[in-house]
Amino acid sequence: DERSSQDIDHSRGYLYGNWDASDALRVTLGVSYEDFEQEDFDQDGYYPKFGLRWQVNDAVTFRAAAFKVMKPVLVSNRTLEPTQIAGFNQFFDDINATESKRYAGGIDWQINERLMIGGELTWRDLDEPVFVGSDAVTEDRDEEYHRLYAYWTPTDTLAVSGEFNYDLYESDDGIATAADNLPERVRTVSLPVGVTYFQPSGFFAGVMGTYVDQKVRRSATASQADGEDDFFLVDVSVGYRLPKRQGSISLGVRNLFDTEFKYQDDSYREFRDEPATGPYFPDTTIMGQITLSF
Which of 43, 172, 210, 291 might form a disulfide with 247, Cβ 3.0–4.6 angstroms? Predict the structure, then answer.
């Protein structure tokens, strides 16, 4: 049981269990109860969870999940409740008391010791409260996120990775799209491909190229712009891994060629207190990092 209190009264409890139906099949079942009150807005209910992980054979793993969630009021975005079911996230940075349903499936295939491929298909249906004075109305949002990936190590010193990501966000017309600049639709396709070289002495270097294609639509009354753009960014990095796993030193350059682009980040669907950094840098940015392990 967890409780939170600001100007909000939120009580919650949850119960989870894992059942190993066989050596190859694990089933996760759970349920949570949420009771949320904020002024005149009151919402409570039970939220079921289901997950399945099936080791089809030594090379192939199948995962699936279906669950319903109410976004809880969290302190420092932390909770004791499991945040993933069968490898799929159930908590996102939604508005407090947002109810969502997520349906997901994925497959991971270790073709050989040097090549792994896989993919995920996920859908989320959200009922998001929009607070008007002391009351709230609920508006519908829908999300799709689909991903294909491949990891290949052609030699002991070279690693190649590639992904295809499809992200679709849609919102019904309502108060938020008309008055708060919430987009009606955002479709983003990205294809990152990277190559990294690892030297036995500890030196490493890598290059990542990412193609992005995005289209954003807003309501006619929105003050922020909509539109579309596609662009290609190059990031590079070099570094050195200290002996005996004592840490690493690295230097990276994001957006190496200072490419100009228009991009809608996820700020419209994130409600964290601290600012978020987008995945792509609009200007050439140099970053250094030192990590030490004792």
Answer: 291
